[in-house]
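Suppose a colleague, Dr. K., hands you the sequence of a protein chain of 660 amino acids and asks what its three-dimensional shape might be. Before reaching for any lab equipment, you can write down a predicted structure in C-alpha cell form. Begin with the sequence itself:
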Amino acid sequence: MLNFSKHFAVALVSIGLLSHSAIGQTSPQPPLEAYGSLPSTEDIALSPDGKIVALIVRQGENTGVVKVDLESGASDAVGLIGKMKSRSLHFINSDTLIVKMSKTKRTYGYRGKFEASGAVAINMDTGKVTGLLSNTENLHPAQSGLGRVIGYNPDSDEIYMPAYMKGGGRALKSYRQNGGPPVYNVLKVSPKTGKGKRHARASEHTVDWLLAPDGTVLAREDIHEDRNVYRLYTEISGKLEKILELENEAYAPFNIVGVMPDQSGLVIAADDQAMDALEKLDWSGNRSPLDVGGPNKNIDSIFRDDNRTVEGVRYSGALPRYYFFDQDLNADVEAITKRFGSSSVEIYSHDRVWNRIVYKIFDGTSSGSFLLHDRSDGSLKRLGDAYKNIPTEAIGEISVVEYKATDGTPIEALITWPAGSSEETRKNLPTIVMPHGGPASYDWVRFDWMAQYFANRGYTVFQPNFRGSDGYGKVFREAGYGQWGTGMQDDITDGLDVLINSGFTDPERVCIVGSSYGGYAALAGGAFTPDKYACVAAIAPVSDLRGFSNWVASQYGKNHSAVDYWKESIGDPKSDRGKLENASPTNSADAFTAPVLLLHGDDDTIVPITQSFVMRKALKSAGKSVKLVELDGGDHWLAERETRIQALTELDKFISEHLN
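The predicted structure, expressed as C-alpha cells, is then:
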C-alpha cells in the first residue's frame, strides 16, 4: 500500500511487484512493436464440454484459429479467416466455433464507410470455414451488426441470427430501389451450409429479439422513432401478443439483458443507458426488482447462455467482482477472486455447465495470464499470457486512488508508475494525463498497452474516471451531461493538480493524450487550461461539437436514438448552440500554447476524420504548432497492428521531444 500525500485518499489497491529497480538503473525495454502489436493471445473460448480451447492468432496480415486439446496439450491450426478483424468467438457445440469479424468498407449506393460485420462457423475437426448468411437472399447490403447470434437450437443444430432484410416494409421513396425499407428479421441458419431462412418476421420498427431454444419468440422490441412509441411483444402463449406499450420514449426505456433462469420473465436493466440495477419483467408486463446491482454495485456485463438466459453478472469497479444465481458457482468464483487478492480477475470463458472456467489474471507479474480452473478438483492450469514478449520487470505498477474534485465530488483514478520505480523515486516525474473515451466508459485495472508502454519508458500515466464516466452509477454518469469542457474537464485538471501538489509530477513536463472523447478532452485541455500542458495529442477526437452532432443526424436521421443520446450528452446543437461553440476546441485555437499532434484513421466510422481536419485548419489559421497524421486503413479503435504501431510510434516521438 502506498503512502500518498494528504491530497489523495488512501490507495484503494496497488497492483504490481515491489520495486524492481530505481529509475536510472536497468529495467528492460521491450521494443515498441511488442506493445503496438495485438496480443499474442487475442481471445480465447472454451468448448461446451470443456475439453478444448480455441485461440485467435495472427500471422502477418492474416487471422487464424488454433485449437488446443486440454488433456493432451496438442495444438492444431484450424481455419484461416483472412484479413478481417476478429471481434468475438464462442462455441455453439463442441464441434463448431462461431467467429464474428468486421471490415471497414464502402457499398455502392450508400454514403460513406461503415463497419461491415459477419460471422463464420469453423468445424473444429475438419477445419472447414463456412460463411454464415453468405448464401442468403435479400440481405440489406449496408449493415454493421451482421453476424450476431442470439440463440441455438440443439435439436436441429441450427442458430438464430437477426439481420436487416430488404423489402420488408412499406416502399418509401428513398428505398424503392431496394424494394422497401429494411426490416430486422430473425433467420434460422445451418452452421454446415451457412444458408439462412426466415424464422420470424419483423415490423419496420423492430430493433431486437429474444428466442427460446425451440425458436419461440420470447420478446420482440419495436421502437417507432418518428412517434417516440415503444412496444414489446411475446409469443410465449402461442401467438404474438403485445405486453407493453409506452409513449414519449425516444429510445428503449430499459435494456433487455436476457431471460430469467426459470423462464418466468425477462431480465431488464432499469436504465437503458447503463445497468445500475436489474429487474424482472414478467409476461404480463409487470416489473419487480431483483437483488442484483444497486447504487453501490453497478453492473459492467451479463453472463448468459446461448439463448440469453441470465446466469450472473460482473460488477464494475477498479477490480472485477461477480454474482451468480447458482450459489455454489457464486461461492467458487468468490473464492478465486479472494485467492488472488488485489489482482484483477476476469472471467473469459467457461464450459456449458461452468465446471471449467478460463480466467485472465493481471497481478503485475505478467501482461495477463490465462488460467484454467477446474471446479471438480480445484486445480489451476496456466494456458499462456496475453503479450508473451513483455517480461515481468518491464511492467509498471498500478495504483488505484481517490481524490476530490474542486466541488467535493470524489473521483477514482488509476496511476501507472514508471517500470522499476519505487516510492522513493516517484518524485517530480514526467507525466501523461490519459482520459478515457466514451465518455460513458471507465478505466479499470488491467494491462493497458498504451499506458504500460509509456510507463516502461519512464513516464507516470494518470487515468481519471471523471464525472460522466460509466461504472459509478446513474447519478455520476448523468452528472457529465452537458459538461463537456466544463465539469468533466475540471475533474481531469483537479486530478493533475493533486499529482503536482503531492510532488509526484513535474508541472513543466505534462502531456495530455486521449482517444475519441479522450481526444476531445486532450484538445480541451490545450484550449481551456493551456498553462497545464507541454504537449497535446488527440486520437480520433471530437473537436467541433455542433459539427459532430449534425454529422450524427445526417448519418442516422434526425429522429434516431443516437441523436437523442448525443443531445443529452453534449447538448442540443440548436437550443444550446452557444454553449456547444464555447466548448469546441476549434473555436479556441488562439488559446493553445502547446504543440498539438492529431492522429486519425481514414476508416473511422464513429468520429469522422473531418473533425481532425477542422481542428488542424483552426490551429494553422491561429499560427499554432500542429501536425495531423492520417492512419491509412485505421478504424476508430486502432484495431489493426499496423495502425496501432504507427500511432504509438508517432506518439512516442512527439511526447519524448516535448517532455525531454
